[in-house]
Structures are given as structure tokens and as C-alpha cells.
Write a structure and sequence with these properties.
5-stranded antiparallel beta sheet; 3 helices; 9% helix; mainly beta; 4-stranded antiparallel beta sheet
């Protein structure tokens, strides 16, 4: 096991005064924390009072690490004994830290790193959790989205509902247009007739096909009969907006669930898997797909307003800022689109596929390069012009960039967490 270290004190001051050649554009390195293994988990900044705080992130060795916000000094670590890709989140009061591991467990710790509770799932957890109204939400490769009580880890609901557990009800997809039955109802009746007397498994397959026909036709509504299999909930992380949970799935659907009950509101199918984390802004939900498209969907019904095609799959989480949509693609380009129309504003070419989601400060957008590209980038949000670049120690960046006040944090596959001080940006 390699030792973990933190940089603080005199060394931190030296780094500020003697910035590496990569530090330009009024961005200076404050400190580095060197972990024991690559860091794929996006850091969480947690204020602990009196100007103090922690930064928490998981690593490939299976540890959740806590370092001092100001100095990068290591404070504590919690072992799960298997890779942590999931980024930690905090409860509303900041006293509980929650995250998942590829060891199939979901954890809740206090701020000192002590275990409060843990919850077993049926497979790996790689997505980031979300917290809303006393519940924590996360997905698993066991094809389930979970809503647990933050207080004790008890199950509030699962989607799809688990047999034998309290649930808000299954659902049957139906469609009406101006009060008239449409193709969905006809498909269900025909399937029921064709499957009369057949085996139960056959019936379920037909029901699923009927459900798909309904979704092609239009609006999805709730009813208590049809059950179906989803794909795995992979890297796409749940987000909550308008009391609705939005999340992508490996079956190619973006799901919209009632955040309180887990009941399906709608789902929209793309052309391939979704591992991108969506974002909601101004009545639209934006999400990328492995089919190389970025989609803008109506948050109320999932209808596609527009889509934009790149030359590679989109795994990056999506971000919006000042009327624009920002994301990276596996075609190695970083994109800025008009949020309302989907028209390209500008794009910037890097040296590798981009998984890192951006963060913003003072009209600059920051993100990290993917495999084969060992750079952190800062671009002007209006023009796409490069205003800062920093070469790391040789790792790709899968974690998202994080801006906290006037600090930028970048966690990287080179085992380092970098902390940069952000100065005021003036466009030339």
C-alpha cells in the first residue's frame, strides 16, 4: 500500500509563488493532495463551520478520503474495499455524508468518518446520489433506482417496485388524445387476446411491447397493472427538479419519476445507452446519449424539442450557464450550444474523449481532458477561446470539475486532487 500525503504550510505558499508553467489566465495552484490510488469520484466540498471545511472523494482503492479544505492535509478515510466511482453528497444539515461503492453497498457516515448505516443492493453502484426532502436517491447496476430515508437508510420506494415490499403501485401505460383511445389501448387489447392461455413469461413480453407502442404514440399515465424490466442504472446520476427525479438508463431511456412516490411520469427513448447525467433548466431537461446526440426534452412530457449530433458518444454530465448548454463528447470536442435552439455557439478540440463535466467562474468554463489528454482547460464561455491550461502529472480526468467560491478543484487519475485559486477574469 502506498502512503497518502497532503501538502500544506510552507510548501503551499511556495506553490502559490512559484506556479508551474501551466498556470496562466489568473489561475494559480494553491495545493495538491496526493492519494494512494486514482481518483474518479467528483469531490464534495463540505463546510464544517468557522470558515473550516472538508473535501471528500472516493478512490480506486475503495477509500472515501477527507482532506482539509484550506490546506489539503489528510484528515481521515473510510474503507469499503472496492472501487468508489460514486461522488459523495451531504444531508441538508451537512452532518451526514452518503455515497455508493462497487462492493454493492450504499453508505452513510458522519463528518468524522464513522459509519451511521449502510444499505445492500444487488450490484455495483457507480452513479452519484441526490438528496431531497429527507430522502437520498441512487441507482445500481441491479436495474433499480432506490429512495432511502436519510435518517436510517430504510427503503421509501424502489423503481421498478420490488415484489413483497411496500410500494406506491405498479403501473400500466395508457394513452388518450382528446378523450379518444389511441394505439396503446389497441395494442394492449390485441396482446391480451393473442396471449390468452399462454405462459406468464410470454404475456409479460407482450405487455412490454404494448408499453413501448404506447410510448411511441404519446403521453404516459399511471395505472396499476403492467410491470417491466429496466436496464442497469449506471453512471447516469439522478437529479431532482420540479418534484421529479430524472435519470438515464442503459436501456436507452431517460426516466422521469415522481420524487415522493417513485411512480413513472414519463420516459423517452434515445438511440443507445444513457450514462450522461441530465440537467434541468428553463423547462427543459438536457441529456446526452451513446447515440452521439444531446437531447433537449420537455420536463412535463418528455417530448423532444431539439437534438444535436456530435461524432462520438456523450457520457459527460450536462451543464447549463447563462443561456448556454456545455458538455464534452467522445469525439474529443467540448461543445457550447444555445440552450433554447440547440444551435452550435462554438466548440473546442482536445486530445482525448471527454467525460469530465465543467464548472464555471467569472465567465470561464473549466473541465479536464480524458484518456490520452493530461490537461485541465479554462475557456471563455462566450467565445470558446482558451484562457488557461494546466498539465497534470499524467492522468485522465473522469471526475467533474468543482468550483467553490474562488477555488477550483480537479480530481484526477494521476492520484492527485488539485486546488487552484481563481482570480478575477477580464476578457481582452
Amino acid at each position: 500500500m502506498k502512503h497518502y500525503t497532503g501538502y500544506s504550510g510552507f510548501l503551499a505558499l511556495t506553490l502559490l509563488l512559484n506556479c508551474s508553467p501551466g498556470c496562466t489566465g489568473n489561475v494559480t495552484l494553491a495545493w495538491e493532495y496526493q492519494g494512494s490510488e486514482p481518483i474518479w469520484s467528483t469531490p464534495l466540498v463540505l463546510e464544517t463551520g468557522d470558515g473550516e471545511g472538508l473535501i471528500l472523494m472516493g478512490d480506486e482503492a475503495g477509500f472515501l478520503n477527507a482532506v482539509d479544505l484550506k490546506t489539503g492535509t489528510h484528515k481521515w478515510r473510510f474503507p469499503t474495499r472496492q472501487d468508489i466511482y460514486s461522488s459523495p453528497v451531504a444531508s441538508k444539515d451537512g452532518k451526514r455524508i452518503m455515497f455508493g461503492s462497487t462492493n454493492y453497498f450504499f453508505y452513510c457516515l458522519d463528518r468524522e468518518g464513522n459509519l451511521l448505516w449502510k444499505f445492500p443492493t444487488g450490484s455495483r453502484i457507480k452513479s452519484d446520489p441526490a438528496v431531497f426532502n429527507g430522502m437520498v436517491y441512487f441507482g445500481s447496476y441491479d436495474k433499480t433506482m432506490y429512495a432511502l430515508s436519510v435518517a436510517d437508510g430504510s427503503v421509501v420506494w424502489t423503481f421498478p417496485p420490488k415484489a413483497g415490499k411496500p410500494k406506491p403501485g405498479g403501473f400500466l401505460l395508457t394513452l388518450t388524445t382528446n378523450g379518444k383511445k389511441d394505439a396503446g389501448d389497441k395494442a394492449l387489447k390485441q396482446n391480451a387476446k393473442e396471449n390468452n392461455g399462454n405462459k406468464a413469461a410470454n404475456l409479460e413480453n407482450k405487455k412490454q411491447n404494448a408499453a413501448d407502442e404506447i410510448e411511441k404514440a404519446g403521453k404516459v399515465q399511471e395505472s396499476p397493472a403492467v410491470k417491466y424490466e429496466t436496464g442497469a442504472f449506471s453512471y447516469s446520476s439522478p437529479i431532482i427538479a420540479d418534484k421529479t427525479l430524472f435519470v438515464g438508463n442503459m436501456d436507452g431511456y431517460l426516466y422521469a419519476l415522481d420524487a415522493k412516490t417513485g411512480v413513472l411520469r414519463w420516459r423517452t427513448r434515445t438511440g443507445a445507452e444513457i450514462t450522461s447525467t441530465p440537467v434541468v433548466d428553463n423547462g427543459l431537461v438536457y441529456v446526452g446519449s451513446h447515440d452521439k446526440n444531446l437531447y433537449a426534452l420537455d420536463i412535463h412530457n418528455g417530448k423532444v424539442k431539439w437534438k444535436f449530433q456530435t461524432k462520438g458518444k456523450i457520457m459527460s454530465a450536462i451543464r447549463t450557464y447563462r443561456g448556454k448548454v456545455f458538455f464534452g463528447s467522445f469525439d474529443t470536442d467540448f461543445y457550447c450550444l444555445d440552450a433554447d435552439s440547440g444551435k452550435l455557439a462554438w466548440k473546442y478540440g482536445t486530445k482525448g474523449p471527454i467525460l469530465s463535466a465543467p464548472a464555471f467562474h467569472d465567465d470561464r468554463v473549466f473541465f479536464g481532458g480524458g484518456r490520452g489528454d493530461h490537461n485541465f482547460y479554462g475557456l471563455d464561455v462566450k467565445t470558446g477561446k482558451q484562457v488557461w491550461i494546466y498539465k497534470n502529472h499524467g492522468g485522465r480526468m473522469d471526475a467533474d470539475a468543482v468550483v467553490y467560491k474562488s477555488m477550483l478543484f480537479m480530481a484526477c487519475g494521476d492520484r492527485e486532487l488539485y486546488a487552484f485559486k481563481l482570480g478575477v477574469y477580464k476578457r481582452k
